[in-house]
Each structure stands twice: as C-alpha cells, then as structure tokens.
Amino acid sequence: MTLQERVGQEIKTAMLAKNADRLGTLRLLKSAIGYAQIERKTDNLSDAEVVTITQKEIKKRRDSIEQFEKGNRPELAAKEKQEIVVLETFLPQPLAAEELEALVRATIQEIGATSKKEMGTVIKAVQAKAAGRADGKSISALVGKLLP
Fold first, then answer.
1. Cα 123 to chain center, whole Å?
2. What pLDDT, in 10s, does the model give residues 11-52?
3. Cβ neighbour number for residue 69 with a 10 Å cutoff
C-alpha cells in the first residue's frame, strides 16, 4: 500500500470513528497531495513525494505554532500541535542522532568537503540520502558543526 492509498484509508477510518480533528487534518493532507498531482500532471505520486509534501505541511504547522505562541493564542497552537502528531504518522522513522552524524561524516568524506563554503553541497547530498528521515534544520546544524 502506497502512502497516498494509506491517507485515503485513514480518512475512511477517521470518518467511521467520527474523529473530526483527525479527519480534518487528513483531508488537508489529501488536498495538498491533490494539488501536487495537478502540478505534476500525474495520477499517482511516489512515497518520497508524499513524504516531502507531508514534511512541508508539518513545517507550515510549526511556523503557525510559533506565530500563535507569539500572539498569545495557546488554544490555536495546541490544535496545530495535534495536527503535527497526525501528520507525523505518515513519515518514516527519523534517524537517531548517531546515525545522522555518521551519515553526515560519510557524506563530507565522499564529497571531499574541506570548508564551510561547501556546506550547501553537503546538505543537499545528506538530504538526498536521508530521504525524509531528518529535518533540514538539524542537518544544517550538524554540517555546520562538523565542517571546519
């Protein structure tokens, strides 16, 4: 079962369980996937593309949480946090800190990066290898720490 099919199945399950919060979040994800399908002119997206879309949706919610907390709206921030929990069920298991560090070190050696000027190249390569299992912020911080 592809991730796209799983989203559809989860929507049906949420409808039957009358879980309105989960259903709303899943419908938003399905909508984002639909827009991506239209944009790419295809009927089916790969799991990697669905993971990328899910990550973008999570990032939007994290940004919203930050704004809601600044605006003193904790109830809206809590709603966004619940949506993140639902969306994270469609992401692959994240890499452990040690695994991510090993991946970054290996990529730096592979590319032969020797300075911070090559940071962008290393980050892109690590993101391709991590395939959605690590967020860009943690990859960037680790690459910045490990490159002289």
1. 16
2. 999 999 999 999 999 999 999 999 999 999 988 888 888 888
3. 13
Instruction: With beta carbons less than 8 A apart as the criterion, state whether 104 and 129 touch.
Output: no
Q: 74-88 vs 47-70: helix axis angle to the nearest 10? A: 170
* DSSP one-letter code for 133: S
Q: How far is CA 53 from CA 35, 36, 81, 137, in A?
A: 10, 8, 17, 17
| Domain range annotation of the chain | 3-88, 97-146
Architecture of domain 3-88: Orthogonal Bundle (1.10)
C-alpha 135/C-alpha 132 separation (Å) is 7
Residue 93, φ and ψ in degrees, nearest 5: -55, 130
Instruction: Report the CATH fold assignment for 97-146.
Output: Arc Repressor Mutant, subunit A (1.10.10)
Tokens representing 83? 């949506």
